[in-house]
Design a protein that fits this description.
The structure holds two protein chains of two kinds. Chain A is an alpha/beta fold. In chain A, the strands form four sheets. Chain A has an eight-stranded mixed sheet with strand order 6-7-8-3-9-10-12-11, with helices on both faces. Chain A is globular, with a radius of gyration of 26 Å. Chain A starts with 6 loop residues before the first strand and ends in an 8-residue tail after the last strand. Chain B is mostly helical. In chain B, α6 crosses α7. The longest helix of chain B has about 35 residues, at about 195-230. Chain B is elongated and about 80 Å long. The chains are: A alpha/beta, B mainly alpha. Bound molecules: adenosine-5'-diphosphate, iron/sulfur cluster (2 copies) and magnesium ion. The site of magnesium ion has 4 residues of chain A, from α14.
Chain lengths: ~675, ~290
């Protein structure tokens, strides 16, 4: 062993006491040791105990949780039996935590400079006179532009990525030796995330940190971690180097997770990992993964597998880890439905659609028309064919949701037309639309927790469209509900359940069922898999694809995840600031020639492969509104030609039939 | 099976689950027991009380607890046990009527404000806030001094004043719910406004209002007793804890039993309501932001 471990967790079991007095473990006999310079990635589905373990490393347990047995040591200090004051000094001192959404939890009414000097005062060893210098030093270390000017700003004046950097700067103020990160980039844009990962990677190296990185995003883990630990149902199932775990996982669960990730270099849907992890309260006799494992046999169901330490350095909790090769053979790729084989006409036409959220008063319209801000969404012209899936990609704020809401009649169009089936106009708001049109356009939202009424059972959820559009009630209603539930692979016994009794994936299936209950022509999907675990995401994508094949439904599929869009779409439109940059068949958009923005997005995608580094072309500054004239991407474009990009709307260049790039760079140079 | 019966069963099932959840918590068990105990006592105390609460016996004036008078006698020689047993009846009656009324009117107005939104809602909420910032006792005294005392005045007064903070809570809950995607989804499907309010909004807001009601009840009890204490509540010789405390506090140093008994009566009821409200909030999955009155 080259170095003694810095954070050392030994045989740790943590649990809660259930209402009937039983102790329910959520972490079982976990060992984890981190030396300085090590960066360990902790992965697993939600509920697998990742965050509990990370918090335990700093001697912290969420309310209701307690240590059943085991030890936690930090640099030789016993974190479980340490005096409260000393513990508090350690936390946020030598040991810093960057929790999920920490950027959003900055104190809103304090200037950035004040917040960081406060952190310096609390934990740092700087004299008070040099706080100002210290603050600026920290801000530049996290690579924020104009650190001096930034000290006077308030958190809400910064973008999500900048806020996250400030949170990292605050964590660094105490000069920590260990850094715990819990999903630090969830909710950030692709390019922002990629930049923050590079920052963390460099910080860890420069400061020789001991780092524990919790994430469900294996791409991010691949970028910053040298070792990975996979958890399942509160247990370690696999540990090894990042390369070992991510490139040739020796455990069926890790294997399943990895194949469920959509990849940029594949054209098919990812493999779903069916089933769900056991609840902590379920009693498990054999291997906790047995119900979902393709290699499971009698032995697996009888006794729990021990953690085997292999010669290669990995540790695997599986009886059949030497048969893992068989999984690759059993893995037949699910082919995606045939894109628009026969042309059945146009389902929806967007013609020069523009949307604006600002409503200038009459006076400013008359006297200062040049002052009206540019429309949030503009010049959107797309014909979507029947049975086609159109993907819309772009960073947050690029107007993806706005376009969907306008089609659904929840936001008024400023100008332009929305035409259904080449005949019926959908330009009016939802209240004015005839019932027949309402049924034909359905929408599915990102977060099923938010899109299902917590007080409605599944039966009540499905009854709403069925009663509204078809006037069903009584037995026909029930029969049809069961029918639809079965289509989304849930059974009759789900009818009486409330959302709180469903897992995230099941909730999203119910939301999908509700949309299909209307038997619509077009379904608008707004980030429908973003709130789900990768394993569940694959299953939901597969379901959407199967349903579409059955019913010939047309999808508009919005996502910020380029690999997901690639997996499910036939055609893709890349949006920036509410304008189309590039549109065309998936294969064409995802290969050269690229629009500079498409290129920047694709380059920033983090692949779950430690050998692949992202290509960061554009910076990650967030723009709040589109420029008034010229190309929407002009302020961030790495290949900007000059003033023509600021004055003239880029020409639409047809690279190939149906593949259009809006850029001033001549086709041959793109 | 018709749909309405399914939703009926659903509500019924939910009541049972929530009750079970409440009873599974120590706070719920203790709280509900205390509240039930007090309600039973209020109903049965005229039958149980060993003496007539009005009966004055000058030879017993301020006498300490004895085998005949377990809790002693007050300054007029009346049996303290009998008076304490009956001392919650008036309070429970008044607050038991005024609390639901306050939640109903406050909830109705709050939901309305929340739905109207915009400028109107903002201006109206300013007025509500200004009103809430006045000390409550002042507001009530003004009313009582103007209209006089007695149940006929106390119930509407308490209903009015305790409905106002409910407006705030109901409005906030309404804002919360109508911004959620399931309401958007219902709008996008083309459901009518009424149907959205009835099906999507109300069931969620009602949970919050129930917890709020339970909490307002304990606040209101305290207010009622304070009014009695100040001489604006129940008129003598009706026994009432607030009034009893007020009467006995002059003799505190040598006859403390006169204060202790009604204090225990009042505080056990308030604690009981608070514990129940707490358990209810947890069972419904609502965070109770506001503190108990003590
Ligand atoms: N209700 C609203 N009022 C005003 N501006 C809004 C509203 N909703 C979105 N916006 C703005 O419109 C732009 C596009 O947002 P949105 O359509 O949500 O993008 P996306 O879905 O691609 O993240 C953003 O600048 C956002 O701040
Ligand atoms: S022990 Fe058996 S069930 Fe568990 S992961 Fe290994 S093969 Fe699968
Ligand atoms: S038009 Fe100019 S600014 Fe816009 S993408 Fe092309 S080169 Fe860049
Ligand atoms: Mg969006």
């Amino acid at each position: 062993m080259p170095q003694s471990s810095f954070i050392d967790i030994k045989n740790l079991s943590v649990g809660y006491t259930s209402r009937n007095g039983k102790i329910i473990p959520v972490l079982r006999d976990v060992n984890l040791s981190i030396t300085r310079g090590d960066s360990i990635g902790l992965v697993g589905e939600s509920g697998s105990g990742k965050s509990t373990l990370a918090l335990a490393a700093m001697g912290y347990f969420k309310r209701g949780l307690h240590v059943i047995s085991g030890q936690v040591q930090f640099d030789g200090i016993d974190m479980l039996n340490i005096e409260r004051n000393a513990l508090q000094r350690l936390r946020g001192g030598r040991l810093a935590l960057i929790p999920q959404n920490s950027g959003q939890s900055l104190t809103p009414n304090l200037r950035i400079g004040q917040q960081i000097s406060e952190a310096l005062r609390l934990h740092g060893d700087l004299p008070a006179t040099s706080f100002d210098v210290g603050v600026i030093d920290l801000l530049s270390q996290v690579r924020l532009p104009d650190p001096v000017g930034l000290t006077d700003r308030y958190p809400h004046e910064l973008s999500g990525g900048q806020q996250q950097r400030v949170a990292i700067a605050m964590a660094l103020a105490s000069n920590p030796e260990a850094l715990l990160l819990d999903e630090p980039t969830t909710g950030l844009d692709v390019t922002t995330q990629a930049h923050i990962m590079e920052l963390l990677r460099d910080l860890a190296k420069d400061r020789n940190l001991a780092m524990l990185y919790v994430s469900h995003d294996l791409g991010a883990i691949a970028r910053v971690c040298n070792k990975v630990m996979v958890m399942y149902a509160g247990e370690t199932v696999l540990t090894g180097s990042a390369k070992q775990v991510l490139l040739s996982p020796r455990h069926p669960y890790a294997h399943g997770l990895l194949v469920s990730i959509p990849r940029l270099n594949e054209a098919s849907l990812p493999q779903a990992l069916d089933g769900r992890p056991p609840m902590p309260s379920e009693t498990i006799t054999g291997c906790a993964f047995a119900d979902r494992c393709k290699l499971a046999d009698q032995t697996c169901h009888k006794s729990p597998p021990p953690l085997n330490h292999l010669e290669t350095g990995e540790a695997v909790r599986c009886f059949h880890h030497d048969q893992i090769g068989q999984l690759n053979q059993k893995t037949e790729k699910s082919a995606r439905s045939n894109p628009t084989a026969a042309d059945k006409g146009t389902a929806l036409s967007l013609a020069n659609l523009a949307v604006s959220y600002s409503q200038p008063g009459l006076l400013s319209k008359l006297f200062a028309p040049q002052d009206t801000p540019p429309s949030t969404v503009d010049r959107i012209t797309i014909d979507i064919k029947k049975g086609e899936t159109l993907g819309l990609v772009g960073e947050s704020g690029s107007g993806k949701s706005t376009i969907l809401k306008t089609i659904a009649g929840m936001v008024p169009a400023q100008s332009g037309n929305i035409i259904l089936n080449q005949a019926e106009r959908l330009d009016m708001m939802v209240e004015k639309r005839p019932a027949a049109h309402l049924r034909q356009v359905q929408i599915i939202f990102q977060n099923p927790d938010d899109s299902l009424n917590p007080r409605h059972t599944v039966a009540q959820v499905l009854a709403q469209p069925l009663r509204l559009y078809y006037g069903l009630s009584g037995t026909p209603l029930r029969d049809r509900s069961i029918d639809i539930l079965e289509q989304v692979r849930l059974g009759e016994h789900y009818l009486e359940r409330l959302p709180s009794q469903l897992s995230g994936g099941e909730k999203q299936r119910v939301a999908i069922a509700r949309a299909f209950a209307a038997d619509p022509e077009i379904i608008l999907c707004d980030e429908v898999t973003s709130a789900l675990d990768v394993s569940v995401q694959a299953a939901v994508l597969d379901l959407l694809d199967v349903l579409k094949r059955q019913d010939g439904t047309t999808y508009i599929f919005v996502s910020h995840d380029l690999a997901v869009v690639k997996a499910i779409s036939d055609r893709v439109a890349v949006l920036y600031q509410g304008r189309i940059c590039e549109i065309g068949p998936v294969a064409a958009v995802y290969s050269a020639p690229f629009h500079p923005y498409t290129d920047a997005l694709l380059g920033a995608v983090l692949e779950p492969d430690p050998d692949v580094a992202p290509r960061l072309t554009a910076d990650d500054v967030v723009e709040l509104s589109p420029p008034k004239t010229g190309c929407p991407f002009q302020r961030r474009c790495p290949r900007k030609l000059g003033s023509i990009c600021e004055t003239d709307i880029p020409t639409a260049q047809e690279i190939a039939p149906g593949h259009v790039i809006h850029c001033h760079i001549p086709q041959l140079d793109l | 099976m018709t749909v309405s019966s399914t939703s009926h069963q659903q509500e019924h099932g939910r009541f049972i689950t929530v009750m079970k959840d409440i009873l599974a918590r120590p706070s719920g068990r203790i709280g509900l027991t205390l509240v039930l105990f007090h309600i039973l006592l209020a109903l049965l105390s005229p039958l149980i009380a060993p003496y007539d609460f009005k009966l004055q016996n000058s030879s017993l004036m301020l006498s300490p607890p004895s085998s005949e008078h377990w809790l002693g006698a007050d300054h007029l020689g009346r049996d303290i046990l009998s008076r304490t047993l009956m001392g919650g009846r008036e309070a429970l009656l008044v607050t038991g009527i005024a609390t639901p009324l306050a939640v109903i009117w406050g909830g109705f107005i709050g939901i309305l404000f929340g739905l109207v939104g915009g400028r109107v809602d903002e201006v109206l909420m300013r007025i509500v806030d200004a009103f809430l910032s006045l000390p409550w006792i002042l507001k009530m005294l003004v009313l009582i001094v103007t209209f006089g005392t007695g149940i006929g005045v106390l119930i509407p007064t308490l209903t009015f004043f305790y409905g106002i903070p409910v407006i705030r809570v109901a409005r906030a809950a309404t804002h919360d719910i109508i911004a959620r995607d399931f309401v958007w989804a219902a709008k996008a499907r083309g459901h009518s406004r009424i149907s959205i309010i009835w099906r999507e909004l109300l069931p969620n807001v009602l949970d919050t209002l129930m917890v709020e009601g339970a909490m307002r009840w304990s606040w209101m009890l305290l207010a009622f007793s304070s009014l009695s204490f100040l001489g604006f509540g129940v008129s003598p010789p009706t026994p009432d804890w607030g009034l009893m405390i007020s009467d006995a506090r002059g003799f505190m140093s040598f006859a403390p039993w006169g204060v202790i008994a009604p204090v225990i009566g009042l505080s056990s009821l308030i604690i009981g309501i608070n514990l129940s409200a707490d358990a209810l909030a947890k069972a419904l999955g609502i965070d109770r932001a506001q503190k108990a009155p003590m």
